[in-house]
């Protein structure tokens, strides 16, 4: 059986990827940090096949030990401080985990290596946030980077160091430049889930208003389940490379709000929504829209869930969860 090792296993993508790889017959190892991590305990209940391994992206010896234990064929580095807003207030931590963490994982792979005939393959979760103040629309693998947050800067370092290790040491290391990808398992701090959850709670009478930052920003939002398949496809190629995964459509935060409220039968969403500058970011990414034609041509990858279906899936999930909590 092939073996996969995933960092960021307790996040949305870790869950989807672990399920996907398990379905493909992999032994799946997930790295968890900290002591008595409650998210890991919950995940182990949901995915009993998962082997949890201790380790931390800030600690190189722990990464070496984790790889020695898991002996993976494929490593997926999804672990990061991934909330852009938080990266402004914890910039050094973000640089250390989201940026230097990639370097440490690459070094651990060089040390542990896999076998000569079967070297470890590496996937890096690069991000559309690297494009930031976009220089070109739509964005492709060749669009120059102009990050707008400490998170985006750290991801640019991670991306560049993967290219450098690939070119310097011949590692089978690929990066997926993933545009926003969402789903029912998205953390509540991210805008899609914040809005779908609020729409459900307002519908159920559990909440009376939704306080937002900018409604003007535009994003290319896809479904996380589609995107993890693309990660795996990248590592099945003979040659490592970088690929954009995106839907090729862009929607504003306002459209997201309007659609989420419409999903619960509320048309006058403006009555419930208020904006507060505390949710504005010191620098904003105004518009993202990706061109995934390279992934489509070379990998045969295509997103399957469109934006209205995605939002409806998330709203329905939140209605169920919140209704179960209601008195
Ligand atoms: P993003 O995702 O920064 O694009 O990064 P997020 O959902 O946090 O923000 C999207 C846009 O919505 C605006 N916005 C708000 N955002 C949040 N979270 N909360 C609000 O109340 C709110 N109001 C408006 C934001 O300003 C922004 O313009 C995500 C992360 O998953 C990254 O880790 C990943 O790399 C990229 O997507 C691709």
Going by CATH, the homologous superfamily of the largest domain would be NAD(P)-binding Rossmann-like Domain
Number of helical elements: 11
**CATH A-level architecture of the largest domain:** 3-Layer(aba) Sandwich
Structural class: alpha/beta
| H-E order | EHEHEHEHHEHEEHEEEHEEHEHH
Regions with little confidence, pLDDT below 50 for 5+ residues: none
Helical residue percent band: 40-55%
Largest sheet: 7 strands, parallel
Quick one: how many beta strands? 13
Structural Rg: 20 Å
Instruction: Give the neighbour order of strands across the main sheet.
Output: 3-2-1-4-5-6-11
Give the count of structural domains.
2
CATH class annotation of the largest domain: Alpha Beta
Q: Mean pLDDT, nearest integer?
A: 97
* Mass-distribution shape: globular
Describe the secondary structure blueprint for this structure:
Blueprint: E1 3-7, H1 12-23, E2 27-32, H2 38-46, E3 51-54, H3 60-70, E4 74-77, H4 84-89, H5 91-112, E5 121-127, H6 150-169, E6 172-178, E7 181-182, H7 191-203, E8 210-212, E9 218-219, E10 222-223, H8 224-235, E11 242-245, E12 251-252, H9 253-263, E13 273-275, H10 293-299, H11 307-325
Helix pairs in contact: 1-8, 3-5, 5-6, 7-9, 7-11, 9-11
Guanosine-5'-diphosphate-rhamnose is lined by residues 82, 84-85, 127-129, 179-180, 189-191, 194, 212-214, 217, 219, 253, 279, 281, 284-285.
């Amino acid at each position: 059986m092939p073996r996969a090792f995933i960092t960021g296993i307790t996040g949305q993508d870790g869950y989807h990827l672990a399920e996907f790889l398990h379905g493909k017959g992999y032994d799946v190892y997930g790295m968890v940090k900290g002591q008595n991590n409650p998210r890991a305990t919950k995940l182990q209940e949901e995915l009993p096949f998962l082997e949890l391994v201790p380790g931390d992206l800030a600690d190189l010896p722990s990464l070496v030990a984790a790889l020695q234990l898991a002996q993976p064929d494929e490593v997926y580095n999804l672990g990061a401080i991934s909330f852009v807003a938080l990266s402004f207030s914890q910039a050094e931590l973000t640089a250390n985990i989201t940026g230097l963490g990639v370097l440490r994982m690459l070094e651990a792979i060089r040390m542990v290596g896999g076998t000569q005939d079967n070297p470890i393959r590496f996937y890096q979760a690069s991000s559309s946030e690297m494009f930031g103040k976009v220089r070109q629309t739509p964005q492709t693998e060749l669009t120059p980077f102009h990050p707008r947050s400490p998170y985006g800067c750290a991801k640019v370092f991670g991306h560049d160091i993967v290219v450098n290790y690939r070119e310097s040491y011949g590692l089978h290391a690929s990066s997926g430049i993933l545009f926003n990808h969402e789903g029912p398992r998205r953390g509540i701090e991210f805008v899609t889930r914040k809005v779908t959850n609020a729409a459900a709670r307002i519908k159920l009478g559990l909440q009376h208003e939704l306080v937002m930052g900018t409604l003007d920003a535009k994003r290319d939002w896809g479904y996380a389940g589609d995107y993890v398949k693309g990660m795996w496809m990248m590592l099945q190629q003979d040659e490592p490379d970088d690929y954009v995964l995106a839907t090729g459509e862009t929607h504003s935060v306002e459209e997201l709000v309007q659609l989420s409220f419409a999903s619960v039968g509320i048309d006058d969403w403006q009555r419930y929504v208020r904006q507060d500058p505390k949710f504005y970011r010191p620098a904003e990414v105004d518009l993202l829209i990706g061109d995934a034609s390279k992934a489509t041509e070379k990998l045969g990858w295509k997103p399957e869930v469109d934006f209205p279906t995605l939002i409806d899936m998330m709203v329905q999930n939140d209605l169920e969860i919140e209704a179960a909590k209601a008195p």
